[in-house]
Design brief:
Keywords: DNA-binding, Plasmid, Transcription, Transcription regulation. This is Helix-turn-helix transcriptional regulator. One of its GO terms (molecular function) is DNA binding. The protein is an alpha+beta fold and 104 residues long. The chain has 7 helices and 3 strands, in the order αααβααββαα. The two termini are 30 Å apart. The mean pLDDT is 91.
Length: 104
């Protein structure tokens, strides 16, 4: 495979979507619950700033992996949940987890 072929490769696109220090942990939290509030995600993640978390969530939303749901209560609430496309990552991430555990 040459560089031109690699630019349009599905593996490259997939890794670009999943790359980011916090994206795997975000996805793990969303696989555990149907929908999760922003503040709950933030509390479940060590040492991540709210700004960085919001950026990572926005990228996942732009890639159609997660959906942002706004509930106009007082105070307003923001939830995140996996899209159908995002749910398809479950078996893939589970296999990566098993593979990674086998390395050590």
């Amino acid at each position: 495979m040459n560089f031109e072929e690699f630019k349009n490769c599905g593996l490259r696109r997939s890794l670009n979507i999943l790359s980011g220090k916090w994206k795997p942990l975000i996805l793990h939290n969303l696989f555990e619950e149907d929908k999760v509030r922003f503040v709950e995600l933030w509390r479940n993640m060590p040492r991540v700033s709210k700004k960085v978390l919001a950026e990572q969530l926005k990228q996942l939303e732009e890639d159609l992996i997660i959906e942002r749901i706004e509930v106009y209560n007082f105070p307003p609430e923001v939830y995140y949940k996996l899209t159908e496309k995002g749910q398809k990552l479950g078996p893939i991430l589970s296999e990566l987890h098993l593979w990674g555990n086998g390395l050590g």
